Amino acid sequence: MTGLLLAAxxxxxxxxxxxxxxxxxxxxxxxxxxxxELIRRDRLQERFSxxxxxxxxxxxxxxxxxxxxxxxxxxMGVRDTNVALFxxxxxxxxxxxxxxxxIMSRQAAQITRLAQERALEKAREEADSAENGGxxxxxxxxx
Amino acid sequence: xxxxxxxxxxxxAESVAxxxxxxxxxxPEADVLVVDDGSTDETAARARAAGAxxxxxxxxxxxxxxxxxxxxxxxxxxxxxxxxxxxxxxxxPAEVARLLEExxxxxADLVIGSRxxxxxxxxxxAEAIGGEDYRATISRRIGISVFRFFLTLAxxxxxxxxxxxxxxxxxxxxxxxxxxxxxxxAEIESLQLAVREGLRxxxxxxxxxxxxxxxxxxxxxxxxxxxxxxxxVLLVGQFRPRHPGRAEPAPLPKAGAGR
Lengths: 143, 259
Prior knowledge:
The complex is a heterodimer. Chain A is mostly helical. Chain A contains six helices and no strands. Chain A has helices at residues 2-10, 18-40, 46-64, 67-76, 81-131, 135-142. By secondary structure, chain B is an alpha/beta fold. Chain B has nine helices and seven strands, in the order E-H-E-H-E-H-E-H-E-H-H-E-H-H-E-H. A seven-stranded mixed sheet of chain B has the order 3-2-1-4-6-5-7, sandwiched between helices. In chain B, helix 3 crosses helix 7 (171-179) and helix 6 runs parallel beside helix 8.
């Protein structure tokens, strides 16, 4: 047991091959280009893109400076850098999902109020046209 | 002194016209509004034909949002009192008239029609309507008693029929419900909210009938989910900040009021 731990401690904290690092960097760049393209085509609003750019830059930084992840793991007091990496990603995604729920709730409330306002306005218009003896109007609405 | 009776309706074309006629007969002085909650059938057209005003929501949003639309309409159009009942014919309009009397006499801000309130008979008129008396299914009864227990705990006031959709209210309630109201869980949270904001909420015994048309949406699984959701809503509601003055409407304009 002690031998195993010692062996683990002797190993470098992060051992990414050049191949993995290039692949990760390429994915990060492609990811950010995709975000750019989505914004350019008005499929994504700028205010929602910030977090994705931060994620892309983080990924790129991790690929270029592999020591970074080891430092972060040390700061967290985690021996295994993989565990550190996955917990960070997991927490970020959790926070992001919650953020979207909050945004969704707000928008649901706004949509409801908008629909209500629209319904009231229409009812108001109908009442007005009925007062003006708008029989034709009423018939049109009944159809 | 205007009174509005509104009826939330979602695909209730079969029964909505007779409900409107009943209300117009029992409450000739009141305006009738049907809040059409995105119906895909003839509900809106039949309501108009029966002489009601119709506010149509562009898509189905649930009972809470439909009720809120009614309260908002009553508040905006300057009605002094409002009441609502279900569109499926369970609620005798004569009983609604009795609820409105309580509010008009200023004995309460919000009056709930209760099926289970003891020590009271329904009005003679409701008796005369006939039909089967209200009988709850088992899953429904469990839900009702769970909500009754927790709502009583939360509000320290005894409620027997927490999910009743027959209510009468004054302008303080209109103001409160049209602004702050979780459209998700209308019946229970609204009661909790009203009590928390210091409104006088009372129950009045009423008679309800078996549904005239359509069927209840509750299956056992849905009931369980419904109860669970309700409990969360109640729990969260206990920790919501109070806003004094939220139930204080602007004074009614003298001219053109209650049109």
